[in-house]
């Protein structure tokens, strides 16, 4: 190899004369400034704007950098720094150069080339050959890029009104309906961008203006753009220089080993990395490798996985021991102990092609025939619905006046089962005209009396039973007297507070049935696989004669489960941080669909669902298959019932190839055959994950389930320990019937339905009914107890059995004067998701919020075409305001005290950031929204001064220690109805930073009831009762865990349900706080000296805002006592025993 060849290969950017008549030049670059946009954008648009125009509705190409498998080079990063400006020049094949006014040069490129040297497209392609995953080099829509490429002055002076909000004219979607000429089509620009890492966000120092870490005394209203210091930038540049040099050396060594000329290889391979403008008829390599059409018959899942492993973008995402294969299961059949009619046999065959029953079906039906109650706990799609269909139809054949009540947690499930039952009835002589109807909130009032009097089977939900049927028991007596079966499907849903309410509703139902002479009604339940199905059914219905069927006799196809970890931005550099899990999921989703796999992707929250849907459609656009993007729809809460039914129908009929959903589709709505499930990020529990995975393979074909690991600690725990996904036990379901706050409401309802006799009704409501009736109800001269006047005239309306809201905001699409309601948003979510100037997502489309009207509860939005989104800036203060009682947490006289009383939740949205796809802040906008104030009950413990002193002496973050300590106390025993003060107010806040700009916060552990209103749900009261035991268990859990991470793991302080994704956690700090609360000794010498409590990926775009740095943690002050309460009533006895 000659010296000149070596020099050229080592730095292709230095080449002066490239023998390529197509090469084009770029101007040098602008000055780096401390207030520039994030410097990971090297040349925001280092390329030409093509004269080739494409339609406005064509999305930008977002395909990821390719990996050259032939050379197998080490992936690294380039050395060019990050100017902020966009540069536009001609593409050699596509037309003339735009005017020089469009050009924004970059100084960093000039530094590489030397004065007077031009950087060409071919040079950038050579860089991408050497470091393919470190840079992005592709054509994008100029309109979508405009916000990113504009300077700060442009953002301030142009395109926004005086409030700092973008106007409709700037961003709205062009349309033929506008009545104007829109022949001016989309313009494409060539984007060159570094994607291998991000910088920590900094803010201007209040005095010097220099970039610095966030200070503690920033005012709440200060909403500032992030800035970056020259030191940070130079450090990142140096890091990239070193890695780029390593990549060149690795390339040269490989060429030498293979006996090839590095310059020739570089020149040959650069052509494969030259981007092609969309729509010019040239097929890119990525597009060429995609299947031309969706096959009618797909390959096996094993073959498809093998193909994906060979894709350019596959970099060992499947973790070690993270690919499990479960062999197909052959069916096990069973026989009934009685004879079915020929009509029923024919109906089963004609509608479902059933000639034999599986063993679990036959066993359950036999138990019902013998007069037992039944709980079936088998896998999803195992045919559980037949277990409650066949007995009811058999009963109708014998007694046409028999009634059945089928209760489902959602309206969609009820309608799904009604259709199935009607299909069976059409083949049964004499029963074809039997009325079976849904009876829910959508049922017209004019039809309700007819359904009540004539229907033989109703499909309803617990809410209608509670609010309508039981309070009107005199009108429903005939129905209840002839009621044979009560079916409660998806029993695992009825857990915690909601389950406690439903259990009392079921006792009220049994009580009314017994009063009208029906003591033989049988209960049938089906559940996902849980730890205690039999005990849970007994608790829900208050019956003891229960038979459990948990052996699954249904066949199942071969199932494959994969743990798919989002790769590092630079696979050779773990410090670069993990990449974009949404983009990773979208790429996998699209490749599966293109191979004929019908896919459902689950997301934890609504906004993430919309972002993923948008990413999927952009990926199909990049693969030049935009028509397939229309075959993928979103499905989540907030969509109208009509839209959801339409999506379900289209998926069932095979018109859709994929759905992106929240857990709204976790339940068993039949949407046809699904081949694959992708779960983006670890869901709330192992049970949720298994329930979602069960949605694939519903037609006994082979299936795939993929868990895509995000960058958060819980996700990475399971990526590193995939065995736990398969070996962890299922969660136990729990309800609390002794909670007087819940019990009283239902006793009042029961007394309204029919007067109560405590000696008779204690079998339904327990021994507490004697005290409740004596103190809370009204007794008549006959000894009967009646509902108190304060609950009349409709006591059931006073008791909400689930956490639903009556107030909603209508989101109205005003694009081209359409004035169509897109969806309705709950009032508690509205201020966090719709705010003027913000971007609202619906079915993957972007809408600009023009107006929010809090008084009239609506928001006006207009469709826009942007490649950025917005993220609200808000804070939530959870503070005790009134103490009702206190108790010691331990037997030691020096132990701390726990307090119980009223807690106020104060939430404010004070602004929002405009952020790009990589989470980088483009702009900051302040808004003026009214606060949201709620009252509930809670328990709190003030952190002792001794603990604060120890933490400060070892530079351990106090806020992180408090967060971890709260997790350790609450995560195992108390469940989801109890939240910690470090939790967000709503699921919509999952991706926000922990806390807003700083304010003083007390050093306090606070636990509050997330449900139940101002009276709470009783869970915090229970935690207060057993607080000493909870603290002891938390300490034991932390000290028994062998994990080495400063943030802990899911075995000690991390919680799958944490709304902050377990960021800002200190395991060591939590141990200090808990031991000091109990007045136990602390091994100070064994504590770490300072630590990184943020964890990977904390904050926006990986740029952390440390809670302890943004808010000043101060010693907690005593909370005032409630009038009539005093410290003299302290409950000092330490609690012993079990929860």
From TrEMBL:
Q: Which Gene3D superfamilies match?
A: P-loop containing nucleotide triphosphate hydrolases (3.40.50.300)
The alphabetized list of GO BP terms reads: interstrand cross-link repair; nucleotide-excision repair
Q: Which SMART domains match?
A: DEXDc (SM00487), HELICc (SM00490)
Q: Where is the composition biased (Basic residues)?
A: 66-76, 84-94
Q: Which UniProt keywords apply?
A: ATP-binding, Nucleotide-binding
What CDD domains does the annotation carry?
DEXHc_Hrq1-like, SF2_C_Hrq
Please identify the protein, giving its name as recorded. DEAD/DEAH box helicase
Q: Which organism is it from?
A: Penicillium cinerascens
């Amino acid at each position: 190899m000659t010296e000149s060849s070596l020099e050229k290969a080592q730095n292709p950017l230095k080449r002066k004369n490239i023998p390529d008549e197509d090469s084009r030049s770029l101007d040098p670059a602008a000055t780096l400034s401390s207030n520039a946009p994030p410097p990971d954008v090297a040349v925001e648009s280092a390329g030409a704007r093509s004269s080739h125009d494409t339609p406005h509705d064509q999305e930008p190409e977002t395909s990821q950098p390719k990996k050259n498998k032939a050379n197998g080079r080490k992936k690294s990063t380039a050395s060019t720094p990050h100017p902020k400006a966009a540069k536009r020049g001609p593409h050699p094949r596509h037309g003339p150069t735009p005017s020089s006014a469009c050009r924004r040069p970059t100084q960093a490129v000039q530094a590489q080339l030397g004065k007077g040297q031009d950087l060409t497209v071919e040079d950038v392609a050579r860089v991408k050959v050497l470091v393919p995953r470190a840079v992005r080099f592709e054509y994008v829509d100029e309109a979508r890029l405009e916000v990113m490429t504009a300077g700060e002055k442009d953002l301030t002076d142009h395109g926004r009104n005086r409030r700092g909000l973008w106007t409709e004219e700037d961003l709205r979607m062009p349309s033929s309906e506008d009545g104007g000429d829109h022949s001016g089509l989309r313009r494409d620009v060539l984007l060159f961008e570094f994607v291998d890492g991000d910088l920590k966000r900094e803010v201007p120092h209040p005095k010097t203006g220099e970039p610095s870490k966030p200070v503690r005394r920033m005012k709440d209203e200060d909403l500032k753009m992030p800035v970056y210091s020259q030191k940070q930038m130079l450090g990142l540049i140096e890091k990239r220089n070193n890695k780029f040099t390593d990549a060149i050396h690795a390339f040269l060594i490989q060429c030498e080993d293979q006996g090839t000329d590095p310059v020739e290889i570089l020149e040959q391979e650069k052509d494969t990395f030259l981007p092609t403008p969309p729509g010019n008829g040239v097929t890119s390599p990525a597009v060429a490798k995609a299947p031309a059409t969706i096959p009618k018959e797909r390959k096996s899942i094993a073959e498809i996985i093998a193909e994906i492993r060979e894709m350019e973008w596959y970099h060992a995402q499947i973790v070690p021991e993270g690919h499990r294969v479960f062999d197909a299961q052959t069916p096990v059949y069973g026989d009934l102990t009685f004879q079915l009619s020929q009509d029923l046999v024919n109906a089963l065959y004609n509608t479902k092609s059933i000639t034999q029953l599986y063993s679990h079906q036959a066993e359950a039906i036999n138990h019902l025939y013998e007069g037992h109650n039944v709980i079936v706990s088998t896998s999803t799609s195992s045919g559980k619905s037949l277990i409650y269909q066949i007995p009811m139809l058999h009963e109708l054949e014998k007694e046409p006046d028999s009634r059945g009540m089928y209760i489902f947690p959602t309206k969609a499930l009820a309608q799904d089962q009604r259709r199935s039952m009607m299909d069976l009835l059409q083949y049964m002589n004499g029963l074809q005209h039997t009325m079976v109807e849904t009876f829910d909130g959508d049922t017209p009032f004019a039809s309700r009396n007819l359904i009540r009097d004539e229907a033989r089977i109703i499909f309803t939900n617990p809410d209608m039973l509670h609010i309508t049927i039981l309070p009107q028991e005199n009108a429903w007596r005939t129905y209840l007297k002839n009621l044979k079966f009560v079916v409660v499907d998806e029993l695992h849903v009825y857990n915690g507070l909601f389950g406690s309410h439903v259990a009392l509703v079921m006792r009220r139902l049994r009580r009314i049935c017994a009063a009208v002479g029906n003591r033989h009604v049988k209960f049938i339940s089906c559940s996902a696989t849980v730890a205690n199905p039999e005990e849970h059914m007994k608790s829900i219905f208050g019956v003891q004669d229960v038979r459990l069927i948990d052996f699954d006799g249904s066949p199942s196809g071969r199932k494959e489960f994969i743990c798919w970890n989002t790769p590092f931005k630079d696979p050779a550099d773990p410090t670069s941080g993990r990449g974009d899990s949404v983009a990773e999921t979208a790429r996998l989703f699209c490749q599966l669909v293109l191979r004929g796999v019908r896919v459902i992707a689950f997301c934890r929250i609504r906004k993430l669902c919309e972002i993923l849907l948008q990413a999927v459609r952009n990926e199909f656009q990049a693969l030049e298959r935009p028509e397939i993007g229309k075959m993928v729809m979103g499905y989540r809460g907030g969509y109208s019932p009509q839209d959801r039914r339409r999506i379900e129908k289209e998926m069932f009929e095979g018109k859709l190839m994929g759905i992106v959903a929240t857990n709204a589709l976790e339940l068993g709505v039949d949407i046809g055959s699904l081949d694959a499930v992708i779960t983006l990020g670890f869901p709330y529990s192992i049970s949720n994950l298994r329930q979602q995975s069960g949605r694939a393979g519903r037609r006994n074909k082979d299936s795939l389930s993929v868990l895509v690991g995000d960058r958060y600690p819980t996700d990475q725990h399971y990526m590193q320990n995939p065995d736990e996904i398969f070996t962890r036990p299922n969660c136990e379901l729990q309800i609390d019937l002794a909670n007087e706050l819940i019990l009283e409401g239902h006793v009042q309802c029961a007394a309204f339905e029919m007067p109560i006799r405590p000696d008779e009704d204690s079998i339904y409501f327990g021994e507490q009914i004697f005290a409740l009736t004596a103190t809370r109800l009204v007794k008549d001269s006959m000894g009967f107890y009646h509902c108190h006047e304060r609950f009349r005239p409709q006591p059931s309306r006073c008791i909400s059995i689930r956490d639903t809201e009556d107030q909603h905001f209508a989101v109205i699409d005003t694009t081209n004067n359409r004035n169509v309601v897109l969806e309705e948003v709950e009032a508690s979510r509205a201020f966090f998701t719709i705010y003027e100037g913000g971007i609202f997502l619906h079915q993957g489309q972007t809408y600009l919020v023009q107006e929010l009207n809090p008084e009239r509860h609506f928001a006006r939005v207009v469709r826009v075409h942007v490649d950025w989104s917005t993220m609200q800036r808000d804070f939530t203060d959870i503070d005790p305001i009134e103490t009702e009682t206190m108790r010691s947490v331990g037997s030691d006289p020096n132990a701390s005290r726990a307090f119980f009383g009223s807690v106020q939740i104060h939430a404010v949205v004070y602004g929002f950031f405009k952020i790009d796809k990589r989470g980088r802040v483009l702009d900051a906008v302040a808004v003026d929204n009214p606060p949201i104030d709620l009252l509930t009950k809670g328990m709190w413990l003030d952190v002792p001064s001794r603990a604060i002193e120890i933490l400060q002496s070892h530079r351990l973050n106090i806020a992180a220690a408090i967060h971890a300590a709260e997790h350790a106390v609450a995560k195992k025993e108390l469940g989801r109805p109890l939240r910690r003060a470090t939790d967000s107010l709503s699921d919509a806040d999952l991706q926000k930073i922990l806390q807003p700009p700083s304010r003083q916060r007390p050093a306090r552990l606070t636990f509050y009831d997330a449900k139940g209103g101002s009276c709470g749900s009783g869970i915090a009261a229970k935690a207060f009762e057993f607080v000493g035991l909870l603290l002891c268990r938390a300490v034991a859990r932390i000290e028994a865990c062998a994990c080495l991470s400063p943030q802990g793991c899911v075995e000690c302080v991390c919680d799958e349900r944490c709304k902050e994704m377990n960021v800002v956690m200190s395991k060591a700090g939590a141990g200090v706080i808990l031991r000091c609360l109990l007045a136990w000794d602390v091994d100070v010498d064994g504590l770490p000296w300072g630590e990184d409590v943020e964890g990977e990926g904390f904050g926006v775009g990986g740029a952390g805002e440390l809670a302890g740095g943004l808010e000043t943690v101060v010693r907690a002050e005593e909370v005032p006592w409630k009038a009539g309460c005093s410290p003299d009533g302290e409950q000092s006895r330490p609690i012993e025993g079990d929860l």
